[in-house]
Design a protein that fits this description.
single chain, 178 residues, alpha/beta, 6 helices, 6 strands
Amino acid sequence: MKKNFYNVLFLDRDGVINRELPGDYVKTPGEFEFLPGVLEALAILNTHFQYILIVTNQRGVGRGVMTVDTLENIHSQMLRKITTTGGRIDKIYVCTDLEDSSPGRKPNIGMAWQAQQDFPGLDFSRSIMLGNSLSDMKFGKNAGMCTVLVGNKYKDEEKDVSLIDYFFEDLLSFARQI
């Protein structure tokens, strides 16, 4: 990874920043739990990237499991904690659509295009997509980004190495290497 070359970091939320609830959604602020080391990692990454953006599919809103207001409350609580510990998130992009064919739903790159409109000059070739799913990796590749897979969601034989540029155990391991 070329240090100082990448200036935008796209992050998935569930399984990267907070604990993922298998077969369920984080539906309330009380269910949101930061993964170990995430707050430290975001404080480190704050100094390395011009923009840090979250791109997250939140189908639970589309299914009526939670409301947009509840999701915004979860994100407000998350952002307050990140900021008070020295990190930052410049913007959160959310797709609540149910259909995989939705242009905004990862691995489609609608959220990346939104970010490029909001941050003129954002260059996908100088961006990193860091996530814990192959959908995140496809999103990054579809937009022409460097891709970083974190976590242990997949067995080695399930990982499509053509989609993954780098692998780290978690966000903190990535931050310490940057």
